[in-house]
Amino acid sequence: MRAQRRVTARTPRVVRTAAVQVDVVTIFPEMFAPVLGASIIKRAQESGRLAIRVHNLRDYTHDKHRSVDDRPYGGGPGMVMRPEPIFEAVEDLKRRFCGRHAGCQTILLAPQGEPLSTPLAKQLALRRHMILICGHYEGVDERVREALVDRSISIGDYVLTGGELPAMVVIDCLARHIPGVIGHAQATAEESFEAGWLEYPQYTRPPVFREMAVPDPLLSGDHGRIASWRQQQSVASTTASRPDLIRARAAQQRG
Ligand SMILES: C[S@@+](CC[C@H](N)C(=O)[O-])C[C@H]1O[C@@H](n2cnc3c(N)ncnc32)[C@H](O)[C@@H]1O
Fold this sequence. Notes:
With about 260 residues, this protein is an alpha/beta fold. It folds into two domains: about 20-175, SPOUT methyltransferase, trefoil knot domain (Alpha/beta knot, 3-Layer(aba) Sandwich), CATH 3.40.1280.10; about 190-255, Trp Operon Repressor, Chain A, CATH 1.10.1270. The protein is about 35% helix and about 15% strand. It is built from ten helices and nine strands. It has helices at about 35, 40-45, 85-100, 120-125, 140-145, 165-175, 185-190, 215-220, 225-240, 245-255, and strands at about 20-25, 50-55, 70, 80, 105-115, 130-135, 150-155, 210, 210-215. The strands form three sheets. The chain has a five-stranded parallel sheet with strand order 2-1-6-5-7, sandwiched between helices. It has a two-stranded antiparallel sheet with strand order 3-4. Strands 8-9 form a two-stranded antiparallel ribbon. Helix 4 packs across helix 6 and helix 9 (about 225-240) packs across helix 10 (about 245-255). The longest helix has 19 residues, at about 225-240. The structure holds S-adenosylmethionine. S-adenosylmethionine binds near residues 158, 160 and 162.
C-alpha cells in the first residue's frame, strides 16, 4: 500500500532534492505540522536544505480497525506495536525514496537507544536520507529493532508517551548542523556541548535593568577581555551544573 501524507496545507512545500530528507512513520501525523512548519525548520524546508515527509502508520494496516497494536506475549500491562505495519511502511518508504541514497538509515526512537548528543546530531546531518519510527504504548515489537532498524536513539533518561516529540527533537537538532540552516556558522560553533562546555551567559540591551548591570568585560569593547570572561563563565557554569561533562572531557584527553 502506498501512503504519503503532507503534514497539512500549512506545511512548507516538500522539496525532493533537499540536502537531508527525513521520512517519519507515526500514528499521530497531525502532531508534526505545528512544530516543523514554523521558524528555522520551516525555512530550512523552504530553502531546500531539509525535506520532511510524515506518514500515517495506519495506512499500512489491512484490518477494518486499522489496528497497530496487540497484547504483549508473557502478559503485563499495556499494548505493544505490531511488527507487520512497521515493516511494510519502512519497506515501502525504502522502495520509494531510498533507491538513490545508499546511506539511508532507519532509526527507532526508544528510551533504550543511544543518547542524542551534538556529535550524533552532526553525524545525522551528513546523511542524505533517514526514516524515523515513532513508538507508542509499551513500545514496539523487538523484531523491529532486530531486523529493520539501523540504530535506536533516546532523547533522555525519561519516558514519554510516544516517539513523536523525540522525532521532532532529533529533526530540530540535526537541522541546525545542515550547512546554511543557521545563519552564522559561528552561532553553532560556540554553543553548549560543542567543545564539552556549557555556553557562557548572554546579555543584550539595556546595560542596566532593574539594578542588574551587564558585566563590565562585555561592555569594554576589548575582544581579548570578552573572550577570557566568556571562557571563565563557561568553565564555572559547567563545573556547577554539569561536572559529568568535565570528567568526560578529562577522560577523553587521557585517551
Ligand atoms: C511509553 S514509551 C515506551 C516505554 C517502554 N515501555 C520502556 O519502558 O522503555 C512509548 C514510545 O515513546 C517513545 N519514547 C519514549 N521515551 C523516549 C525517549 N526518552 N527517547 C526516545 N523515544 C522515547 C518510544 O518510541 C517508545 O516506543
